[in-house]
Amino acid sequence: MTLPPLLRSASFRLTLIYILLFGSSAALLLGFLYWATAGTLSDQVDAIIEADIKGLAEQYEQRGTPGVAAIISERVRKDPGGRTVYLLTDPLRRPLVGNLSKWPTVAPDASGWIEFELQDRDAPDGEVYLARARPFVLLGGLNLLVGREVRELVRTRDMAINAVIWGSAITLALALAGGIAMSRSTTRRIEAINQTSREIADGALDRRIPTLGTDDEFDRLAIQLNEMLDRNQSLMEGLRHVTDNIAHDLRTPLSRLRQTLESLDENGLSKTGRTTRIDRAIAEADGLLSVFNALLRITQIEAGGRRENFATIDIGELLRDVAELYEPVAEEKNLSFSLRCDETTGIEGDRDLLFQAIGNLADNAVKYAPPGGSVTMHAADRTVTVSDTGPGIPEEAFGEVFLRFHRLETARSTPGSGLGLSLVEAVANLHNGEVKLEDNCPGLKAILTVG
């Protein structure tokens, strides 16, 4: 027989363990209360009987048999209900005085106490009740039996036992009900995660795990999983975007490469022409290889595979090296090139990657600044800023330009692969930093901050 899903759940099994532990604790507590209550009352009864025996024994020593008999008779007279049991017999246990007609036939226990039944002669139904007594042998061989009826003690014991039974049953029932409710709640939360996972597996990548706003462990888990799903969806969309752009941007150079190679079979082609076309094909192939190498490098950076090359770097010194490389290019284009290094902080990073990232920013600035414009490079603390006076980028496109192969329509005619800013962003993330763009009015300002 297959159990219902709720009974097969891990949360229900944990609930059963909790019920057993809680029920055992409650039973022990109630058992202790029973022992403390019934045991105390029983000890009180025994103490009263012991004191009564001791008093009668002393009276016997002082006043003899007639004195003890008189005392017992007086006490029996004052207690017509028979709450106290007295019996004085001769050595043969023949009754002399007391409220019992004969000596009980029950043998004493190991402690010398006997418990026997008596019938209430005053009750209409002749109720039978229990008495507890202790025999004592007086000097001269007389037998003295002193005891008390323990109906109240028995009732108290029964009440305590019922309280233990009912208390344990109610405790277990409440614990079971609470456990089932808790298990259902937990199962519902887990099933919501499973349902969302199935929907995502079926292709609904935009589905997310619902939260209740309780900030409990399930909500925190759902938030973490949703953040992971957001990241995965972003990566999938980025992959689709990269695939589309690769197909779009590499189709033209591949077509040119094919045409160039096919043209090598033309009849009458001179050796110089053939060499020229071969060089053109090699250049196209090199361009394609550079694109794939850039992609590979970005992937390696995003995977964190370059941290073994980290060392202490001076940002100001690094910026001066980049400026030394691009200043002649800017001068050839008739651009005003300026460099300013304020006090900088040494950082832990990969010098080659940071050099390439800053170089990409400088290359873009020099590439897009018009003749007569300016390019400014500035370093301060852990931040590098590269500004130009070119056409800039619309503010709404600031986020898009960091996507791989993304190029604005106005930049399609300019050489490039659309991977420069993607690499800059990957390097910034590797160094626990960020890169952001601002309007330079006119032009663009790129700000790279490293951790």
Main attributes?
Helix Hairpins, 3 domains, 55% helix, rod-shaped, 12 strands, Beta-Lactamase, 5-stranded mixed β-sheet, Heat Shock Protein 90, single chain, 8 helices, 5-stranded antiparallel β-sheet, alpha+beta, 451 residues
Biggest sheet record:
5 strands, antiparallel
Could you say which structural class the secondary elements and strand pairing correspond to? alpha+beta
**Whole-number total of structural domains:** 3
Radius of gyration: 50 Å
What distance lies between the first and last C-alpha atoms, to the nearest angstrom?
61 Å
Mean pLDDT, all residues: 81
Shape: rod-shaped
Count of discrete alpha- or pi-helical segments spanning 4 or more residues = 8
> Are there runs of 5+ residues with pLDDT below 50, and where?
none
Number of E strands: 12
